[in-house]
Amino acid sequence: MRAVLAGFALLFMIGAVLAVSQSDISEFQGYADAINASRNYMTQYGPAEQTCWTSGTLLASHPCNDMASCAQTASMVCVITGAMGCQIEVLAQHILTYSQAIDSLNQGYSQVYAATTLDQIQTAFNTLKSGMDSVKNSKLRFPTTTTCSDCLGVCPEANLDYTSLNAAFAKISSMGGTDSPASTGGITSIGNCADGTQYGKCSTVTHGMYCGGSVSAPILGLDSRCASTTTSPNSGIPSNCADGTPYGKCSTANPGYYCSGDSGARALVQDTTHITCKCSDVPGYIEQGENCVAAKCGSINNGECDPSNKPKICVNGVLVDNAQKCGCPRGYVFSGNSCSHNEFSCLKKVSNICNYSNETMTYEVTYIFDRGYKTVVTENLTYPRQSCQNYEIMMAGDNCDIEKERQPVGGASVSPAPVPEGQKTVDCDRCPAVCERKPPNGIICGACICPTNVGYCNQAGIRNMMDGQAIYCLDELWRAQKENQESCQNSFECKSNFCSDGVCYNIAQDVHQNTNLLQQIIDFLKKIFGG
Length: 531
Hints:
By secondary structure, the chain is α+β, with helices and mostly antiparallel strands. It is 28% helix and 25% strand. The strands form 11 sheets. It has a 4-stranded mixed β-sheet with strand order 17-16-15-18, with no helix packed on it. The protein has a 3-stranded antiparallel β-sheet with strand order 21-22-23, with no helix packed on it. Strands 1-2 form a two-stranded antiparallel sheet.
């Protein structure tokens, strides 16, 4: 037990060395304010985040937190924009990712103002960076400074203040918040923890503790890797404390307590320094002296603003004014930490209001066919059209939510109508030149009427066999080879492969017949002359 208390004492001393001063906290809050302000960088379409939240994604009027609810929001976006081919599932996933990114930005900003330790500040800025990276790379953006082939273009491109983010991380690193080559350079020796445990080893004195942190000033901390150094399970000591907390872990049922015990039984031990068992690790608890106390104000967590009751913030269970952090309602201005009514603070605002509709145009298309045929057809084309107008709007009411007067600023911008295709070529099926092409029927090619044939071919003069029939190719048509005495123009048209005087002729048969006649004459002469 003394070793445990010694470890906690060392943690307390090191925590005191790394404590964050009020001036440091104010500097970090300044970085967070700069990042928060950059979220509504003024683009040509209006404030980046506000424009995306209200008109680009409709999340202001149709919030969502899962794919099912975001699909409904995406469906509304598709209906209002009238975009052709709008893919609701794809758009819903991007809207959900964007909504989660905005949650991270809001959460990180609140965490910075609630933070009292360097670890809490580093966690807050990590949360901010996660949200910033997600917004920066959102597929919803209309890229103007980057290239994105699959972006949807429904939101202005963000211009977030990464300079302030990097400055915050640089200060965190300089204060020992993150080990890096810059912060650990020059260290030539590795120290031991207070109980003598070597750096990177589990303690055999303070069970469940691991010697880690900075190599030059290591500290003991809870680590599940060190469970094997605890008392043997066969010793009869229960594995959990009475409230169910596992050995070597901080209790969630009793915030600020740690399950320990080296012999006899497990027992909860209070971490009065709150370095190992931080009160803030249990949602809704804060440190108050040596104890952890509940810090909610109804449904509002400690350190969070009440969005329905600006400028109230929850501090140790009590709602107090903090206008610098929580802001003022519309129609009110800062007055110290409070807000005072100012009827002139919400007189005018400029909004870009767009109307969407589907337009239909009628036009003529000339369809071009082969053989010089043409057909003119009247067609309709339906397309989405967007008309946008900037208005200067006079607002009134305590919350500046009552429109008093609206005046147009400049002229309206209307998306151009598409230019239809006035001529189209129709690809008809093959029809050899020797064949007759009938006129088209509407935009359907006419029939091809050919002489008797058994199919199409490419090279004239080619002879072939098809299903036992002798054929030849002429004028791109396969035709049956001709018998003797049929009219012909080319020898390849004839079965005898010989055309003479315009008819097919079997010269081989004639030669054979003439040879027989000559032989008969010779035989006759032999009989007369006794040959």
